[in-house]
Amino acid sequence: MSLTLDDRKNSTTAFCGSASICSDQPPAVAFEDHELIDPRWDEILKKLLSFFNYEDDWDGMDGAAASATVIGAAIRIALTQRDALHPAPDAVSMTCNGTITFETSASESEPFPITTLEVLSETDAELYVGGEVLKTFTITK
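Above: the chain sequence. Below: its structure as tokens.
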């Protein structure tokens, strides 16, 4: 499986990861490289799978649950980044708008700016740095 995020502003293809936000290299993991995969990806993927169990009003404040297509797109992004040996994000969350965010701090000693990749739909995502939209992407398979 290959997943690309097409940069609409610059008409380039990029793979967005957590700590290293964009790389032009496609994901490829050889079996012998499996020990290089950040073990935190397991928890990220488990949390993404748990979002299938959420229903609207999951937060008690009329929050919309993410659709199966949004969750599927987020899982594809996570698997692509994991297989490209990118570090796992610090957190993954479902928002009250039914979107999914991956968040990464600059470093433990320098927690800001926070980088966020928000999966808006099966085909759309936005990359924020310090709360400002840096890039808008089309998610393709």
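Strands lie at 4-7, 12-16, 22-23, 91-94, 100-104, 115-119, 124-129, 132-140.
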